[in-house]
C-alpha cells in the first residue's frame, strides 16, 4: 500500500507540474501580448491577476456543487486540464485584450479543477502523515508554475506562440497521466463538505482563523512575488549590465521560483512534521520578509548578489504554503474542514489580486529598489498570528 502511495504521488506530482504550466504561460510573454493587444498600464497587471480571479470563481463553484465529492477526482482533473489546454491555446488566435484577459480568467477557472482536486486525490492516497507528500505536491505546483520561464530560456528566439503551444501540450500530457496511468486510490477519503451555513463555525473558531490569517499573510506576498520577480530581475540585471542575455534572465527566474521553490516545499514538508506547523511557517515567513526588504538594495548591483537573495527568497516564500492547510485539517472539526479549506483558499487568492496590482502601482512611484518592501507586511503579520496559533497546535483539541 505504501509503495503504491508513493508511486501515485510521483504521477500526481508530474501531472500537477505539467498542468500548472498554464498559470504563467501568458505572463512570461506579457510584453508581446501587451504590445499586440495595445493594453494600457492599468490593464497590464490584470493580465496576471486574471488567472487568480478565475481560480477563485472556479474554486467557489466547485466547492458549492461538491464536484470533488460527487464525481471521480481523476476524471475531474483530466477534463479540467484538457479544457485549460484548449482555452490557453486560443490565445494564439485572439487580437483583443478584453477577450485575451477573459480567456485567462476562464483558464483560471479550469485550474480550480486541477490544484484543489490534486490535493483531494493526494489525501485519498495518504490518509495520514501527509506533511512530506503535500510538500512534494506543492513543489510540483511551484515548478510547474515556473515552467514557462524554462521554455523562454531555451526558445527565446522563437515566437511567443510556441510558449503557449508547449504549455497547452504539457496540460494535455497531464490529462493523459491522470486518465490512463494514475489509478484510483484503494480507500476513499471521507467527504469534506462545503456549506455557506458552516462559514460561521469557521470564522468563530479562533485557532482555525489564526491559521487562516497566517495563510492570508503568506498569500499577500507569494503570487505578487512570483509575478513581479522576473521583471525585477530583468530590470536589475540590465541596469548592471545592458548586455545581459535574455536566456540568463529567464534561467534566473526559473531557478528562483521553480527550482529553489520546489526544494523549499520539500524541505518545509519534512521540517514541519518534526518541529510543528507553526514553527516552520514562522521561520519561513521571517526569512521571506527579510528577503523582500533586502532584495531592493541589490538592484542594479552585482548580478550574483541579487540572484543569491532571489534564490533564498524563492525557497522561503513557498516553503510554508502547504502547512497552513495542514494546520486547518488538524485543528478544525471534520464537519466543516471542507468549508474551512475552501474559505482559506478563496480569500487567499482574492488577496493575491490586490497585491499583484498594488506592486504595479507602487513601482511607478518608488521604483524597483523599494517596491517589494510592501510585501513584507504579509509575512510579518503572518508570523504574529502563527505565534498565537502555536499554543493550540499540540493541545490535542479541536475547536
How would you characterize the overall build of this protein?
This protein is mainly alpha-helical and 399 residues long. It is built from 18 helices and no strands. It has helices at 2-19, 30-37, 41-64, 67-70, 73-89, 97-111, 115-125, 131-155, 160-181, 199-203, 206-240, 246-275, 277-294, 303-319, 321-331, 337-366, 368-371, 377-393. The longest helix is centred in the middle third of the chain and has 35 residues, at 206-240. The chain is globular. The two termini are 32 Å apart.
Order of helices and strands: HHHHHHHHHHHHHHHHHH
Helix and strand content put the structural class at mainly alpha
Specify Rg, calculated over alpha carbons.
20 Å
Indicate the percent of residues in helices: over 70%
Number of strands: 0
Distance between the termini: 32 Å
The largest sheet, given as strand count, sense and whether it forms a barrel, is: none
Q: What overall form do the CA principal axes indicate?
A: globular
Mean pLDDT: 87
Count of runs of 4 or more consecutive helical residues: 18
Flag low-confidence runs: none
Query: Percent of residues in beta strands?
Result: under 5%
